[in-house]
Amino acid sequence: MVLSHAASESDVSVHSTFASRYVRTSLPRFKMPENSIPKEAAYQIINDELMLDGNPRLNLASFVTTWMEPECDKLIMSSINKNYVDMDEYPVTTELQNRCVNMIAHLFNAPLGETETAVGVGTVGSSEAIMLAGLAFKRKWQNKRKAEGKPVDKPNIVTGANVQVCWEKFARYFEVELKEVKLSEGYYVMDPQKAVDMVDENTICVAAILGSTLNGEFEDVKLLNDLLVEKNKETGWDTPIHVDAASGGFIAPFLYPELEWDFRLPLVKSINVSGHKYGLVYAGIGWVIWRNKEDLPEELIFHINYLGADQPTFTLNFSKGSSQVIAQYYQLIRLGHEGYTNVMENCRENMIVLRKGLEKTERFNIVSKDEGVPLVAFSLKDNSSHTEFEISDMLRRYGWIVPAYTMPPDAQHITVLRVVIREDFSRTLAERLVIDIEKVMRELDELPSRVIHKISLGQEKSEANSDNVMVTVKKSDVEKQRDIIIGWKKFVADRKKTSGIC
Question: What is the bridge-based pairing of β-strands 119-123 and 13-14?
Answer without folding.
Answer: unpaired
